[in-house]
Each structure stands twice: as C-alpha cells, then as structure tokens.
Design brief:
By secondary structure, the chain is mainly α. It contains six helices and three strands.
C-alpha cells in the first residue's frame, strides 16, 4: 500500500476558494436570475450542496477546486473514492454539527487540519475520509 501525503490547511483552503469562485459565483448568478431575488441564496446554496455532495462521488474524490490543486478525498479504510453515503456524512452531518456548535467546530476543524499529522478535520473523522495528494 502506498502512503499518500495528506493535504494541509492552505491547499484545502485554496481548493475551497476555487470552488467558490468557479462554481459558487456562477450558481449564485443563475439562482438570482431564476428567482429574481438577489437576497435569496437558498437555490444557490442547495445547488452548491448538491455539487459538493455528488461531484466527488462521480469524479472519484475530486471537486473542480480539488482537481486544480491536485488533491482529492478518499476513504481512510481502503483509499477508495467516497460513495454517496460517505459524502452525506462528510457534508450533511458535519454541517449540522458545525451549525449546532455555532461555528466553533469549524474553527476546531481548521486547527485540526493545520496541526494534526494526518491533517484530518472533524468532517473527515465523521465520514472516515482524508484529503490527500494522489
């Protein structure tokens, strides 16, 4: 088994920023055009959630931002790409925890990625995933 190098805080942040710019902004503009209400982000939020949920399943652990940055999500157990159940745990359950803790868990996750040797955040532990350089 080849040990993959874990992706740290800055590269993961860069991938998230790229996803926000390349996918999030166009989705927001399309949502505004469809709903006619620039203040209502519910459609773009829902579309972004679906993007973050499904693209890594169909694209073997990558989002557009992760692909550009050369990192991907994989299961810790067998290094396989995440399935739909894994991504539901990673996104839905983790976001509920982040909301219930009023964002404190997001800060904890950022410190975990920055300081832990395995660079795993809370959502990685919840889903049994890691983000690595393939």
């Amino acid at each position: 088994m080849i040990v993959m190098r874990p992706a740290g805080f800055w590269i993961r942040l860069g991938a998230a920023i790229l996803d926000a710019i390349i996918i999030g902004i166009p989705l927001s503009l399309i949502s505004d055009a469809i709903t006619g209400d620039p203040g209502d982000e519910s459609l773009s939020d829902a579309l972004m959630f679906v993007y973050m949920l499904l693209l890594p399943v169909f694209w073997r652990g990558y989002t557009v931002g992760k692909r550009i940055c050369g990192i991907r999500i994989q299961k810790v157990s067998d290094e396989s790409p995440p399935g739909i159940g894994t991504m539901l745990l990673r996104n839905l359950v983790a976001n509920i925890i982040y909301a219930l803790t009023l964002g404190i868990a997001i800060v904890v996750s950022a410190f975990m990625v920055g300081l832990r040797d395995d660079k795993r955040a809370l959502h990685d532990f919840i889903a049994g995933t890691e983000v690595v350089y393939p």
